[in-house]
Amino acid sequence: MKKIILVIGIIILIAASRVFAEDIPTLYEAKVLSDDINVRADSTVTADKITTLPKGEVVEVVVEKYDWCRIRLPKEAPAYIRKDLVEIIDDQTAKVVKDVINVRLSSDESSIILGKAGRDEVVIILSEKQGWYAIEPTANSFGWVNKKFIERIAVREASAVVEKDKKVEPKKKEKRKPVKTIENKTTEEEIILPAKEEVIIEGIIQSYGRVFKRVATHKLLTLDEKTYLLKGNKKSLDALVYRHVKISGTIISAPDQKLPIIEVSKIEALD
Fold this sequence. Notes:
Elements: H1 2-21, E1 28-32, E2 37-40, E3 49-53, E4 58-65, E5 68-72, E6 80-82, E7 86-88, E8 93-96, E9 100-104, E10 113-118, E11 122-129, E12 132-135, E13 140-146, E14 150-155, E15 197-207, E16 218-221, E17 227-231, H2 234-239, E18 244-252, E19 261-269
Parallel strand pairs: 17-19
Antiparallel strand pairs: 1-4, 1-14, 2-3, 4-5, 5-13, 6-12, 7-8, 8-11, 9-10, 10-13, 11-12, 15-16, 15-18, 16-17, 18-19
């Protein structure tokens, strides 16, 4: 009986670690309405302050709770991880070597936990301090902002939990009106606007080269020889050139761009 309880406990812990390591989707984006808006560790005015936001900054909201919104932390927010939980890639990046690690507000084991990072996730190192690294907050690091200080500006499709008996009608894609060209005096075919699509893709990162007014800095060559452009943190991408990686992100559109573009939210090194 004790062995059965022990096995069940281990299974629960493994399942919990996987949940913590998964990305939390963005509900919508919002713009900050005033200067020096406090981002707090919890949804109360007495909670510890993590950082402040300037007027006009755009934040990603992941949860709404009464008068508060949980947001993904901006890269300027303080964040720390223990040195022994990561493996150095170069002087600016490191790879997580444990299944799930804590991202904290300061370089102290008793400090507030801001978020998580999963195995093989790449983090940006800013400085070193007594057994800790100061890093840019990971994609799964969060704080709280009062709703009255932000304004919703964009909606993203989020995963919905649907009851078995209910059917979800797929959203119709918007269409642009036909546009007449002056030279040919013909009407273009209707263009379907691509919806934002969350993707997870494996492949080899390569530099995109010097391209005027480029929207991406790198490209991803998949095993089935498809090519995607990558838009994300250049330091992280540079550190993983010619490495086998798993990219999580959103397909975005750009004018005059033939290749699909992924706005990168998370990178995992697989080799």
